[in-house]
Write a structure and sequence with these properties.
There is one protein chain. A four-stranded antiparallel sheet has the order 1-2-3-4. It is globular. The protein starts with 8 loop residues before the first strand and ends with a helix. It has a domain of 40 residues. It is an alpha+beta fold.
Length: 63
C-alpha cells in the first residue's frame, strides 16, 4: 500500500495547553512535521532514521 498524502496526528509530546503543539505525519517515505496552529509556515521533512535519532535525543534530554 502506498500513501499519497500525509496522515497528520498531534505529537504525543505536545502539551495540553495548545501553546506548543506540532503535528507529525509518518505514513510516507519521509517524516513530515508542522506547527499545529499555523500550517502556512511549511513543514520540516526528514528521514525516518533522523527522526528516530531526534526522538531518542529529546527523550534523554527532557527536563
Amino acid at each position: 500500500m502506498t500513501a499519497t498524502s500525509p496522515n497528520w496526528h498531534k505529537s504525543t509530546y505536545s502539551g495540553n495547553t495548545n501553546d506548543a503543539c506540532i503535528e507529525v505525519a509518518d505514513n510516507l517515505p519521509h517524516v513530515h512535521v508542522r506547527d499545529t496552529k499555523d500550517h502556512t509556515q511549511g513543514e520540516l521533512t526528514t528521514t525516518p532514521a533522523a527522526w528516530t535519532t531526534f526522538l531518542a535525543y529529546a527523550r534523554m534530554n527532557t527536563i
